[in-house]
User: What shape does this take?
Amino acid sequence: MMYGWRLRIGLIVPSSNTTMEPEFYRICPEGVSIHTARVPLEEVTPDALVKMADYVLDAAKMLKTADVNVIVYGCTSGTLIGEVKWERELTSKIERKTSVETITTASAVVQALKVLDIKRVVVATPYIDKINELEKKFLEEHGVKVLSIKGLGVVKNIEIGKLAPWISYRLAKEIFKPEADGIFISCTNFRTLEIIEKLERELGKPVVTSNQASIWAALRTIKEPVEGYGKLLKTYFTL
Assistant: This one.
């Protein structure tokens, strides 16, 4: 029997991303498989992210040949860089080209924040300030108030992938505000799986991360809760 007999996820990732696939593999329940295509990216800058999008349609066409059920464009900054209209148009282009349902990380995060009723959020990122400004604008255009956002100023994506989970943990705690409804840790190359539930227990608020939200959005078609990676994956499949 073919792998992915319940669900085959086609994943598009930046070429320098070393985190998203391993985190997806850890979360996937039985009968779900991941099939990946890569698009060129070395630096997380606005120009590089926009240029990366030029390769996405070809990557999506290749994933279609694996008979995937859903396509995830797995890059947070790369799917919000052109703001809300640009992200929606990119999603539509992929779906028209492949006839496969398509999810972007940016849209998955917005969906996750909404189902968790997070209207006021604090955001931790590894990004430079320019990317953070665009992220704040994107979230607020979707009706989510960003109370604070802080990045680490890392430009090289391969260096983001080398950051240990305790770095995202400490950054999230540093920016936390009690009046926030939840925490968002951004970037599909920023390791977070090990610290989601620790933060939720210690801060008493739900935590959304880019990879957690992306796979949650893909797994909603089979409606199977997954333990160990936060309230979102554990609870919000039967709403």
Observations:
- Residues 83-98 form the longest helix (16 residues).
- DSSP finds twelve helices and eight strands in the chain.
- The mean pLDDT is 95.
- The two ends are 31 Å apart (CA to CA).
